[in-house]
Amino acid sequence: MSLFFLFFACAAATEEKIAYPTKMLSENERYELSYETDPSPIPLNDEFILTMTIADQINEPQKLEGIDVTIDAEMPDHGHGMPQSPVTTQLETGTFQAEGMFFQMPGYWHILVWITEENGTIEKTIFEVDCCQ
Amino acid sequence: MIIALLMGCTEDPPPFSASETAIIQRMQPLDEPPLDTTNWVDGNEEAISLGEILFFDKGLSKNGGISCATCHDPELGWSDGKAVSEGVEVNDRHASSLWGVGHQRWFLWDGACDTLWCQAIGPIEGETEMANDRVSLARYIQSNRLMAYENLFGPMPDMSQWPLEAKPTPDFEENPLHLEWLSMTNEEQNAATEVLVNIAKVIAAFEATIQPPLAPIDSFLSAFSKDQDAALDLLNDTEEEGLRLFIGDGNCHFCHFGPLFSNSEFHNIGLGDREWLNDADIGRYEGITKLQNAPFNAAGIWSDDPNGERSERLPRLTQTSEHLGQYKTPTLRELSSSAPYMHGGHFEDLETVIKHYISIDESPLYGHREEMLIPQDWTQSQIDSMVSFLRLLDSNN
């Protein structure tokens, strides 16, 4: 019992921000996605640019030529998203940039990515983010 | 195992965790606001002086009885002590306090303006506020403030061919003032509008100087950056409990952060109706439409920096159902003199405000409430502690 309290006291004093991965597979593992932000780390209550790089995982790299990507974000525990709508554009094959990202509150966020293939198939990916210290 | 744990924890833990420390450190410093690049007279001493005179000048209103200070009285926290403000008629919302207004990015409770001078224009011609028109205003300035005005903006326009009074009211085309407006040439209309804009810009330059004074919280924050224990010695037990609730279970810091304790964005906090309020008020949802159509927004022809930073967010604002019933997060500084609180003056004192947040028992008129607001089982002592903490943000404490 005392061990538990000892551990809890130390853990509380050294609590750190959670570093969630910035690279992951899409829900059906068809793509590997990774992102960077400018500025980095993500600023609180200010605009930032998010660049998403998408790599093929299904040995059909030609499909990257025809995909469309939409990026948004939400706070699942709060029931709302960002105060504005970012605009996603393709920089080159497999690289997309969302301008106008904006985290108006600190806390737990989801960055949402929808990849729409030419045949209409939609592949979703959710990145977790702990904003912002 | 025990030894390893002890070795990792040989010193007393700091009073606040890393995340709590980050939240507290975010509360400072209380700097001067940045200059508004859409207003070329912002920061100009001459403009600030003229703006201060005009802020208190009832001659800017149609009936000569209303000034900006009628609803933004410095003795009442730059508000008016009323649930909803009263110009020539009763308005729909509470008069916002102007403390720290130069730091804001959106203005009015629904953010219908993205510049402070845009906000200042509305009341001058607003039918329920000062009810003036821009031609009468120009004539008043020519008769009463000519030298100060011309020192800043050059010669007043020739008004000899203008009607006595006129303004555009496109939503009320039969308005005699609108018909008079249509009788003016484009050049005359632009000249009259320019005077209105210039007057609003000097008033805004003055308003941007309304900076909250340092409060006890600032002494705490200054000490906190050096020594957390020493900083806590500046607070009594009740104030410390209030601080811990503010950054902890109260969830207050999610919206009320930074030196002004506001993120300057919009939230639905689940406020219900009141008999004195307009039940058609849908908040930020309509504010976005007004802002994008506003002739005086940051990207418009009257802006001095139409392609600048302030205008960049405008095209990214898209109305969604999330915006229904949202209102701007107010600053928590200098609250003691600006009651009642909320966009509709819903609550008469801070204790009642806190009881709203811990009970969350009202149904919002529009939209859905911020879901992190959940009922809290707080004692009266905890409520008192939160009030004590909020008083630390007040220079009158």
Description:
The complex is a heterodimer of chains A (133) and B (397). Chain A has 133 residues and is mainly beta. Helices cover 9% and strands 49% of the residues of chain A. Chain A has one helix and nine strands, in the order αβββββββββ. Chain A has one helix at residues 2-13; strands at residues 23-25, 31-38, 47-56, 68-75, 80-81, 87-92, 95-102, 107-116, 122-131. Chain A has a five-stranded antiparallel sheet, with no helix packed on it. In chain A, strand 2 (31-38) and strand 3 (47-56) form a beta hairpin. The longest helix of chain A has 12 residues, at 2-13. Residues 1-14 of chain A have low confidence and may be disordered. Chain B is an all-alpha fold and 397 residues long. The termini of chain B are far apart. The chains are: A mainly beta (133), B mainly alpha (397).
Write the topology of this structure:
The complex is a heterodimer of chains A (133) and B (397).
Chain A: H1 2-13, E1 23-25, E2 31-38, E3 47-56, E4 68-75, E5 80-81, E6 87-92, E7 95-102, E8 107-116, E9 122-131
Antiparallel strand pairs in A: 1-2, 2-3, 3-7, 4-5, 4-8, 6-7, 8-9
Chain B: H1 2-7, H2 18-25, H3 45-55, H4 68-71, H5 116-125, H6 134-144, H7 146-153, H8 176-182, H9 186-207, H10 216-224, H11 228-232, H12 237-247, E1 266-267, H13 284-293, H14 309-312, E2 327-328, H15 350-359, H16 380-391
Helix pairs in contact in B: 3-9, 5-9, 6-9, 12-16, 15-16
